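Reviewer comment 2.1 asked that we show a complete input and output for one of the modelled complexes. We chose the zinc ion case, as it is the one discussed in the main text.
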Amino acid sequence: MSIELLTRPTREPLRPGPAQLREVRKALEDRFDEERLLVNADRRQAYAQDWSSAGRHMPDLVVKAESTADVQAVLAAATEHQVPVTPRGLGTGKAGGALPIYGGIVLSMERMNRIEGIEVADMQVTAGPGTVTGDLMRAVEEQGLFYPPDPNSFDICSIGGNVACNAGGPRALKYGTTKNYVRALQVVLPTGKLVQLGQRTAKSSTGYRVADLIVGSEGTLGIITQVTMRLIPRPDAVETALVSFANAVRASEALTAVIAAGIVPRTLELLDHHALDAVRAKTPGRFPDDAGAVIILETDGRTAKQAFEDLERAADVCTAHGALDVLLAQDEAQRKRIWEPRRVLSVTLRETAPRKISEDIVVPRSQIPTMLAAVSRIGEQRRVRVAAYGHAGDGNLHVNVLFDDSSTERADAAVRDVICETVRLGGTISGEHGIGLLKRDFLPLEQSEDLMGVQRALKATLDPHHILNPGKVLPPGVSAP
Ligand code: 2HG
Ligand code: ZN
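Response of the prediction step:
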């Protein structure tokens, strides 16, 4: 068979026309009442935007699913009338993945938010995709168990969205990201077929790992209608310290040394001077005034002795690598005072400029000092404020470009410089937020045409009519297995 026969160009879908929309609406009205099928513009508004800087994209219809059968019914109607469907968790995505850029239906999972069972002996939890991640975390902790992935938006984001984007968070340093906790998924494929993926067992080597393909696929390959997540024993002892440095490069050299010394804290979160300035302006007195950068160092363990010894060792390495000061939280209230500004830092920074573009690049840990130096150089060269903070222990930096409408071109150039430098250093353009819409056109900088072709072929196999979350993740091009 010739290569031409194996390849086919993907097409960008068209917006549905009035007749298609009329027909699909008629089909949906049979099943969904007006509380669950939103047709009026003022009620659809809330679904036109997410937490990214990708603007407003109005859906033609919004459906609130309450069951897997609802999801199947929507996909069946959408397939019949060739109308795009964009699944949406709680809308906290940073890359525009939940935006209906071709109109059509937004399928909201917000009502599928029940924790269906916590199985203590099997150490797993089963929940609806719209379950708030923080609710799931607290529920399992009450049973002595622990769900480690902790995106900073955990109180407002959903577990299904976390799986769809392979979300991370500060504790990914020690415990890994969402993908490390997915055991089984119930997924509705674009054609409406329901499949059970993975296994509700601790191990499985049966067949292709299709569940892993759904993790991080950003709602382009199937819609998750139930998750079963692995849990671990709750580590009861936690120690937290705030370590100050003269600047971010010094801080990153110290954190690289901590890991090289064989210590695995549960967090090594970095805040550079732009991030610190924003925190100081909003909540004065939280972080030392003389610091040019800080690291939030946190350890945990089964016993207080173990957590404290790890913290002490890590703090010693930091001191040997230029730390100016180490402040140890004495109690839960002090821990909260350290974490609170970090948890809301993305929002705090957004308040400091009319516009903000968030990147979540990752470089090999050894390259963090080089990357941080590059970020600061890029900010100077492009004359825009570029903050860097985040999960530096993983090499994962949130590079936030902050600007106003008069400097859009320079801001875009700065973003591109950051992406190019990341790839040059052997890094990846998304560590936890996904590609969505905003990073889609950067994908060819990191991935080869052949690799993108393989992914387009997978997409075409699972979604032959190209109706599920079209226009996301993969730039248009040739599909080649
Ligand atoms: C965080 O770690 C989030 O605070 C958001 O992932 C980061 O807005 C951002 O760039
Ligand atoms: Zn983050």
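The first helix runs from residue 3 to 6. We note this here for comparison with the apo prediction described in Section 3.2.
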